[in-house]
Amino acid sequence: MIKMEKINKTYGTGSSRVEAIKEIDLEIKENEFVGLIGPSGSGKSTLMNIIGCLDMPTSGDYFFEGEKVQGFSSNQLAEIRNRKIGFVFQNFNLLPYATTFENVELPMIFKGASSRARRAKVMELLERVNLAARAHHRPSELSGGEMQRVAIARALTNDPRLILADEPTGNLDTKSGQEILRIFEELWSQGHTLVIITHNPYIADCARRVVKLRDGLVEEDSARM
Ligand SMILES: Nc1ncnc2c1ncn2[C@@H]1O[C@H](COP(=O)(O)OP(=O)(O)OP(=O)(O)O)[C@@H](O)[C@H]1O
Ligand SMILES: [Mg+2]
């Protein structure tokens, strides 16, 4: 599904230059469940932003489903993100004044789906994350775990093959974190490919493959052991 060859990402210039990731070679196949771990500053988010076509490497080659991503226009990159990738973040990124229903519906409005199609899809997704009963609540009326489930439902509106999550349980208590993990396991069993950055040992244990970064390098990759 994705393949990286000698990927580097450098931020800044001169004395403020940071080599966030260095010469990374990484291949992730369809329906893998990858945990991305490593200390703070090791380059996890940088790597994920490149995987998610949110940012470009400074050098090296990145292939998404066999296509070389460099040289794509920003519209083409947006197209890949919108059609193939679902993003989940630590701080949920929900619209505070919109209900659960509206937060999940929003990406489909941008896509131009009919209101009837949107309604059916939103309700199906809310059932899937067990939140149908919270459809008309706003984020301030939800627990952290519920907010993250809204965010996951929103990430699934485009039926993404690849789901990227950056510390999805970082702001959650253990029990809510485990509910989120259960949803990820279910998505994995349904054939999605998952890449999850995490400090959560439960998630790292459940991932079928663990890639550990240190100082911008792959220090360990359980797939290569
Ligand atoms: N936009 C940026 N401009 C300059 N330096 C950056 C930028 N983003 C990240 N960095 C630097 O790149 C390095 C890797 O950062 P990155 O965010 O990828 O780490 P991380 O592994 O995700 O850390 P954390 O666990 O704290 O989220 C760090 O030294 C960071 O300071
Ligand atoms: Mg990070």
Question: Strand order across the biggest sheet?
Answer: 6-7-8-3-9-10
CATH topology: Rossmann fold
Q: Helix and strand succession?
A: EEEHEEHEHHHEHEHEE
Q: In CATH's first tier, which class applies?
A: Alpha Beta
Average pLDDT, rounded to a whole number, is: 94
Q: What would you call the quaternary organization?
A: single chain
Pick out the low-confidence regions. Answer: none
Tell me about the biggest sheet?
6 strands, mixed
What is the fourth-level CATH superfamily? P-loop containing nucleotide triphosphate hydrolases
Task: Give a written overview of the molecule.
This protein has 225 residues and is an alpha/beta fold. The protein has one domain: 3-Layer(aba) Sandwich (Rossmann fold), CATH 3.40.50. 35% of the residues lie in helices and 27% in strands. The strands form 2 sheets. A 6-stranded mixed β-sheet has the order 6-7-8-3-9-10, sandwiched between helices. A hairpin with a 6-residue loop joins strand 1 (2-11) and strand 2 (18-28). Helix 4 (115-128) packs across helix 5 (144-155). It is globular, with a radius of gyration of 18 Å. Residues 44-45, 166 line the site of magnesium ion.
Topology:
Blueprint: E1 2-11, E2 18-28, E3 33-37, H1 44-51, E4 59-64, E5 67-68, H2 74-84, E6 85-89, H3 100-111, H4 115-128, H5 144-155, E7 162-166, H6 174-189, E8 193-197, H7 201-206, E9 209-214, E10 217-221
Parallel strand pairs: 3-8, 3-9, 6-7, 7-8
Antiparallel strand pairs: 1-2, 1-4, 4-5, 9-10
Helix pairs in contact: 3-4, 3-5, 4-5, 5-6
The structure holds adenosine-5'-triphosphate (ATP) and magnesium ion.
